[in-house]
């Protein structure tokens, strides 16, 4: 039988006595003469090769199922050892690179993504608030007087410091200052002006870094500002805010003490006790005011805290008074040459009396006149007139608008220094 894929008709048998004809060669078989399965009519015979070189196809010896097989365990063991060695080398190299790159931690766990180098990330733009604070801090000092703490700022390389008068009130040999780096130095009182609440002290230290003084007449409501000082004994404190108002005329001082008048810069930067005498700085790092007064909703002055209402003496006024104190030992007080009525609401400052030959009299003002505006600034009462006059230097010429009866008038007044 056959499976049919190589079947062909068997050849005709030769007649008796005729020699057998050679079969047709097959394209599919080699050694067909010796293949008993090629032709079912061919006589069967078993032929043994006489030598290994005998021609004919050689059959491959089938594998012996009982022969011993090659073990696979050694191969697996070699693969395992190779993998372990590769992993160890890779882990070692990875650890070395991680340590050199700064990403390895002592705990063995890296938290957070890698960032820039610390020195680069610590830099701040000079015009940023952090840059301004970095420049100003070395010039700010903590003033210590008999256990009390206030603030101040260096205005000259040879040690002059501006602060508030109420900070150094009662100062004795215990007066000293501390700098932002923790160093301290003794200080002496140069002079004070209680009515303007300004004082100058001298620090026994050379090579100091003075602040840059700005122009308080050029600031505007909404300008960003920074307040420096030691509020509640927390030294090296910086708070931020804006200019909330300008020429805010207020009256301050204890009932039994000196009454102080301010045409102040109002700010919402957080200011507390201990900030007094510290600088108020604009966005360029220039001092525009001296932090002096805070407003509280109740309680005594010693219990007052920040509610977003703080007031600073304009630096133009503070600079002028400090120069007077340094040059002469005392400050000149600017006056208009008239006494005002207080405690009444007259939509202006009513003049109780006018000094003969004084600035107001020279400009034509009389007792009973109501000053409505000074240099364009509206006045609410007599306190407002005093505070605004103190803002200007002696010799300044200011425009005055006033009311006499039902008539309005105006005049130019040349302010003068108090002769007392």
UniProtKB/TrEMBL annotation:
<keyword id="KW-0472">Membrane</keyword>
<dbReference type="InterPro" id="IPR001940">
    <property type="entry name" value="Peptidase_S1C"/>
</dbReference>
<keyword id="KW-0378">Hydrolase</keyword>
<dbReference type="InterPro" id="IPR036034">
    <property type="entry name" value="PDZ_sf"/>
</dbReference>
<comment type="similarity">
    <text>Belongs to the peptidase S1C family.</text>
</comment>
<dbReference type="Pfam" id="PF13180">
    <property type="entry name" value="PDZ_2"/>
</dbReference>
<dbReference type="InterPro" id="IPR051201">
    <property type="entry name" value="Chloro_Bact_Ser_Proteases"/>
</dbReference>
<dbReference type="InterPro" id="IPR009003">
    <property type="entry name" value="Peptidase_S1_PA"/>
</dbReference>
<keyword id="KW-0812">Transmembrane</keyword>
<dbReference type="InterPro" id="IPR001478">
    <property type="entry name" value="PDZ"/>
</dbReference>
<dbReference type="GO" id="GO:0006508">
    <property type="term" value="P:proteolysis"/>
</dbReference>
<feature type="transmembrane region" description="Helical">
    <location>
        <begin position="75"/>
        <end position="99"/>
    </location>
</feature>
<keyword id="KW-1133">Transmembrane helix</keyword>
<dbReference type="GO" id="GO:0004252">
    <property type="term" value="F:serine-type endopeptidase activity"/>
</dbReference>
<protein>
    <submittedName>
        <fullName>Putative serine protease PepD</fullName>
    </submittedName>
</protein>
<dbReference type="InterPro" id="IPR043504">
    <property type="entry name" value="Peptidase_S1_PA_chymotrypsin"/>
</dbReference>
<dbReference type="Pfam" id="PF13365">
    <property type="entry name" value="Trypsin_2"/>
</dbReference>
<feature type="domain" description="PDZ">
    <location>
        <begin position="325"/>
        <end position="381"/>
    </location>
</feature>
<feature type="compositionally biased region" description="Pro residues">
    <location>
        <begin position="11"/>
        <end position="25"/>
    </location>
</feature>
<keyword id="KW-0645">Protease</keyword>
<feature type="region of interest" description="Disordered">
    <location>
        <begin position="1"/>
        <end position="67"/>
    </location>
</feature>
């Amino acid at each position: 039988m056959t499976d049919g894929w190589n079947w062909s008709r068997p050849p005709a048998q030769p007649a008796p006595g005729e020699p057998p004809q050679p079969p047709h060669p097959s394209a599919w078989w080699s050694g067909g003469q010796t293949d008993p399965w090629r032709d079912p009519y061919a006589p069967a015979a078993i032929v043994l090769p006489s030598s290994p070189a005998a021609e004919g196809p050689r059959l491959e010896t089938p594998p012996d199922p009982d022969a011993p097989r090659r073990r696979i365990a050694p191969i697996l063991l070699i693969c395992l050892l190779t993998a372990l060695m590769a992993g160890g080398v890779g882990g070692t190299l990875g650890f070395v690179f991680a340590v050199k790159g700064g990403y390895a931690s002592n705990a063995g766990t890296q938290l957070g993504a890698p960032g820039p180098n610390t020195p680069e990330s610590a830099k701040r733009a000079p015009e940023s608030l952090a840059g301004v604070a970095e420049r100003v801090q070395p010039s700010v000092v903590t003033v210590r007087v008999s256990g009390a703490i206030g603030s101040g700022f260096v205005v000259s390389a040879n040690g002059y410091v501006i602060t508030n008068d109420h900070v150094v009130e009662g100062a004795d040999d215990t007066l000293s200052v501390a700098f932002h780096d923790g160093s301290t130095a003794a200080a002496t009182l140069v002079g004070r002006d209680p009515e303007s609440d300004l004082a100058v002290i001298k620090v026994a230290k050379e090579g100091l870094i003075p602040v840059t003084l700005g122009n308080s007449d050029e600031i505007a409501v909404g300008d960003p500002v920074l307040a420096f000082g030691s509020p509640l004994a927390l030294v090296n404190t910086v708070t931020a805010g804006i200019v909330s108002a300008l020429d805010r005329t207020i009256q301050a001082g204890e009932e039994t003490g000196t009454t102080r008048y301010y045409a102040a810069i109002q700010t919402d930067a957080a200011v507390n006790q201990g900030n007094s005498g510290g600088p108020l700085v604009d966005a360029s790092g220039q001092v525009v005011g001296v932090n002096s007064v805070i407003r509280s909703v109740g309680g005594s002055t010693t219990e007052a805290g920040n509610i977003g209402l703080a007031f600073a003496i304009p630096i133009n006024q503070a600079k002028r008074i400090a120069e007077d104190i340094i040059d002469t030992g005392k400050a000149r007080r600017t006056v208009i040459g008239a006494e005002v009525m207080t405690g009444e609401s007259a939509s202006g400052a009513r003049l109780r009396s006018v000094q003969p030959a004084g600035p107001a009299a020279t400009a034509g003002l009389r007792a009973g006149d109501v000053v409505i505006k000074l240099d364009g600034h509206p006045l609410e009462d007599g306190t407002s007139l005093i505070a605004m006059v103190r803002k200007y230097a002696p010799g300044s010429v200011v425009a005055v608008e006033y009311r006499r009866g039902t008539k309005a008038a105006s005049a130019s007044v040349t302010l003068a220094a108090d002769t007392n």
